[in-house]
Design a protein that fits this description.
Number of helices: 14
Strand content: 15-25%
Bound molecules: 6-O-phosphono-beta-D-fructofuranose
Structural class: alpha/beta
Largest sheet: 7 strands, mixed
Strand order of the largest sheet: 3-2-1-6-7-12-13
CATH architecture of the largest domain: 3-Layer(aba) Sandwich
Shape: globular
Number of domains: 2
């Protein structure tokens, strides 16, 4: 039944470890098991617009399981807002044309939250789409976990381990900034695994004073160093109030694109506070009297070979995706549910974010082992 199916595949959004493993899992199952043919599109949705392809055969799939990045290349370009110099254009019609030119049965979009939304836009334009969840942020709704997260967690944990010995030797406070966009999964997970003394995540607005007091208490007990793990999206209690007001105002404006305006405003807010960990480091040095340093892990967290868990997850999701395509089920994301996989309607995924719930067991565990979460 699947023999006449030609499938497109692209990777979009920030890269992460496990993308190649997913392409391989999908490709091997689709080509070898179901007898489909497959075309890769380069650099995300832009490759569909410009019809820049990579024909996927066994040769392309061989030896990529352990490689970081993506053999297809990626970009953050959106079909409906494709940048050309200083202007953007809705390139959905060009994508639809490419899709039909290649006689595609469906296109698999591998990406994070933004990709899920863009895939749904293509679905609304009449294309058959299936998505796979990837991101180091672990913030995609309706899946237990996304690939990329476990590898980033390992890298960030190792970094915190290494920061411990230098912080101890110099009796310093080390603030370490971790990625995660607006979600705290990575900072929380790595903070717990690395034994950080303070963990600050976007879901729990913090007070710098509370953090400084926790560090001083530790120093009085003889621990003359502290590791403060901060998510890049963490905000103070004061900033959270400003964000709430901003969102409220935008909602009240009720213009046609009200929802989009809210996220634009939020992005702008975070861009304006991009140096917040540097400021926090200075505040802590002043308030505690202890020498303080900042380490920003940045894109290190997204590079290199995927962990065994991510290779396994990406292979499971990729191969399950081929099965979904073979039964011609479209408009879904292939999600991880325990040891199994399941399909979730794209409508349920697109536009939603999986944040850390305040009563999540990881937060409870962190508090129980005495970690300061910045709020009390
Ligand atoms: O979504 C993955 C992620 O690494 C986020 O954690 C981070 O906020 C963002 O991408 C960085 O994006 P870019 O690589 O485009 O700077």
């Amino acid at each position: 039944m699947a023999k006449d199916q030609c499938i497109g595949v692209l990777t979009s959004g920030g890269d992460c470890p496990g993308l190649n493993a997913a392409i391989r899992g999908l490709g091997k199952a689709a080509l070898d098991h179901y007898g489909m043919s497959m075309i890769g599109f380069r650099d995300g949705f832009r490759g569909l617009v410009q019809d820049r392809t990579l024909r996927i055969t066994g040769e392309q799939l061989s030896g990529i399981l352990t490689d970081g990045g993506t053999i297809l290349g990626t970009s953050r370009d959106k079909p409906h807002k494709m940048p050309f110099g200083d202007r953007t254009e809705d390139m959905t019609p060009a994508i639809v044309e490419t899709y039909h030119r290649h006689g595609l049965e469906a296109v698999v979009c591998i990406g994070g939250g933004g990709t899920q939304k863009n895939a749904m836009r293509l679905m609304d334009a009449g294309l058959n789409v299936v998505t796979l969840p990837k991101t180091i942020d672990n913030d995609i709704a309706e899946t237990d976990v996304s690939f990329g997260f476990d590898t980033a967690l390992g890298i960030a944990t190792e970094a915190i381990d290494r920061l411990h010995s230098t912080a101890t030797s110099h009796h310093r406070v080390i603030v370490v900034e971790l990625m995660g966009h607006r979600a705290g999964w990575l900072a929380l997970g790595a903070g717990i695994a690395g034994g950080a003394d303070v963990i600050l995540i976007p879901e729990i607005p913090y007070s710098a004073e509370v953090v400084a007091n926790a560090i001083k208490r530790r120093a009085r007990r003889g621990h003359r160093f502290s590791i403060v793990a901060v998510a890049e999206g963490a905000v103070t209690i004061e900033q959270q109030k400003q964000i709430d007001e901003l969102v409220q105002k935008k909602k009240e404006a009720k213009d046609r694109e009200g929802k989009k305006d809210v996220s634009d405003a939020l992005n702008q807010f975070h861009e304006e506070h991009v140096d917040h960990t540097l400021r926090l480091t200075g505040q802590l040095e002043k308030a505690t009297g202890m020498e303080s340093r900042l380490t920003i892990l940045g894109h290190l967290q997204r590079g290199g070979t995927p962990s065994a868990a991510d290779r396994l997850l990406a292979t499971r999701l990729g191969s399950a995706c081929a099965e979904v395509l073979a039964r011609r089920q479209y408009g879904v994301m292939v999600a991880a549910r325990g040891d199994a996989t399941e399909t979730v309607q794209l409508e349920k995924v697109a536009g939603s974010k999986k944040l850390v719930p305040p009563d999540h067991p990881w937060i409870q565990a962190a508090r129980l082992v005495g970690t300061c979460m910045g709020d009390e």
